[in-house]
Design brief:
Blueprint (H helix, E strand, L loop, with lengths): L3 H19 L4 H36 L4 H20 L24 H32 L5 H16 L2 H19 L10 H36 L12
Length: 242
């Protein structure tokens, strides 16, 4: 019974959402299901926050390796939650000026906005800046011409990188214009071989075709996995494969 009920609920809601996209009179069913989803998601956020605090408080109390990071996590979580829920620095909205908390918690100048702009965004930018070095290291290892595929990848990457810079355009624009004028009497006759044009062709034709193939494969995978979940074949969300 503990597994049958969740399976039935998941299947029922899933098929209702699918039908609401194709049957007009069932659209209200889909909206009702999404409202219930938002309600359940709110409870899930509460449970997730409580579980986060439990895990890190236990780590702090036992002083396991890295417990200092847990202190920072708990402090950041608590401060952010208090400022966000308390709406510190929020001014009343024009619709309800008599209620202090009626304003948007992300309005300019609010405490939550300040934390987002001056704490979260700089930290996120720092993390992405560090990722650039890992990407460069991975690219160096990947761009070794060990076989034909690696050579094609290396040449294509070099053309794209060079074509995205002014130097790449400058190196090919004037020579091709002179060659086109000399051979065909038209400086634009060989413009299609300029690096910036070649890069646009690579990104707009070959890269786009690869991206579409990947997206189609992902879509088919999502459909297959969704059907497995709805039909009860995949029960991993219940915490067990059985």
């Amino acid at each position: 019974m503990k597994r049958t009920v969740p399976l039935c609920i998941a299947a029922l809601v899933g098929f209702v959402l699918i039908l609401s996209e194709f049957i007009p009179f069932a659209q209200s069913w889909g909206r009702t299901a999404m409202i219930w989803f938002d309600i359940l998601a709110a409870f899930a956020f509460v449970l997730g926050g409580a579980n986060l605090l439990k895990i890190h408080l236990l780590k702090i109390s036992s002083q396991r390796v890295g417990w200092g990071y847990s202190v920072i996590t708990v402090a950041a979580f608590t401060i952010t939650m208090v400022i966000g829920l308390g709406k510190f620095g929020v001014t009343p909205s024009e619709s309800f000026p008599q209620f202090t908390w009626s304003g948007d918690y992300l309005q300019d100048g609010s405490g939550f906005w300040w934390m987002y702009q001056y704490v979260y965004l700089p930290l996120a930018s720092t993390m992405f800046a560090l990722l650039a070095f890992y990407i460069a290291s991975a690219a160096f290892r990947a761009f070794r011409a060990k076989n034909t595929e690696a050579i094609i990848l290396l040449v294509t990457a070099f053309i794209v990188l060079l074509g995205r810079t002014y130097a790449g355009i400058w190196l090919t624009a004037d020579p091709l214009a002179w060659l086109g004028q000399t051979l065909y009497g038209d400086p634009q006759a060989l413009a299609m071989f300029r690096l910036d044009v070649v890069v646009e062709m690579i990104m707009g034709v070959f890269n786009m075709a690869g991206n579409r193939a990947i997206m189609i494969g992902i879509a088919l995978g999502i459909v297959a996995l969704s059907l497995k979940v709805l039909l009860g074949v995949d029960r991993s969300y219940l915490g067990s494969e059985e």
